[in-house]
Design brief:
The protein contains ten helices and six strands. The protein has 246 residues and is mainly α. It has a domain at 2-76: Arc Repressor Mutant, subunit A. The strands form two sheets. It has a three-stranded antiparallel sheet. A three-stranded antiparallel sheet has the order 4-5-6, with no helix packed on it. The relative contact order is 0.10.
């Protein structure tokens, strides 16, 4: 339903919005402040009016978000939050119960158990860390802005993106971005850094489909507008020269 009106780009913007909801306190995104709404709209490449129309469409036509007063959330994020909270409580209760038993019996199992849990958690984290390094290195081999340091901001964005996309999908998107940048028949547009490419609604989400993104960036002439580029169709029947196609 979403792609009927907004296409693949709209789906990408929805998942970008979903990430913002997931990062919010209690998974409820506060839109009561004008600057919050303006900032999110800008990140999604919308005007304020377009963003409000997008939210209304997601809520009323697609049932993808829930609006409560000035907050938005959705069932998927809420369910995941509840699962995580239940799991954390269960683990905490089990750990506390084991420690109580160990105090009563004089056992040292509690410390050994804690050390074992920490060791297991470290093993679990290692593959995730490796994927972050792989993506960072893979990006720097491409045509985007090169990064000298894998800082916390980049790590956080890669980990957020890995919740919705596989390692291979991200590498494919980076490859397709390189194809577009190096294709003489496609406009250059803006040269991105890794965080922008992963976070922007018109970044990774649309670069997964090479043919679609080729058509989007097909060079029909370029006109600078506010630091970005827009497509211009020339000498096409029904359009006078210099007409900007939206």
């Amino acid at each position: 339903m979403l792609r009927v009106k907004y296409g693949w780009e709209g789906e990408g913007k929805f998942w970008a919005l979903n990430n913002r909801i997931a990062e919010s306190e209690n998974c409820e995104l506060n839109l009561s402040k004008k600057y919050n709404k303006a900032s999110i709209a800008n990140d999604l490449d919308f005007t304020i009016d377009e963003f409000e129309e997008f939210l209304e469409y997601l809520e009323k036509e697609c049932d993808l978000i829930i609006k409560e007063n000035n907050y938005i959330t959705n069932e998927i994020v809420r369910e995941n939050l509840l699962k995580v909270m239940k799991e954390r409580k269960r683990n905490k209760d089990n750990y506390e119960n084991r420690n109580i038993q160990d105090v009563n019996t004089g056992s040292t199992r509690g410390k050994r158990g804690k050390d074992k849990i920490q060791h297991v958690e470290k093993i679990k984290q290692e593959p995730a860390k490796e994927r972050v390094k792989v993506i960072f290195t893979y990006w720097n081999k491409g045509v985007g802005i090169k990064h000298l340091v894998l800082d916390d901001k980049i790590k956080a964005q890669i980990n957020t993106t890995l919740k919705n996309y596989s390692l291979e999908q991200i590498k494919q998107g980076i490859d397709n971005y390189k194809v577009i940048r190096e294709d003489d028949n496609c406009m250059d547009g803006k040269k991105w850094g890794l965080v922008e490419f992963l976070k922007q609604a018109n970044g990774l989400a649309i670069f997964l489909d090479l043919e679609s993104v080729k058509d989007r960036y097909k060079k029909r002439g370029l006109q600078s507008k506010g630091g970005s580029y827009v497509q211009i169709e020339r000498h096409k029947e029904g359009y006078p020269e210099g007409t900007v196609l939206k």
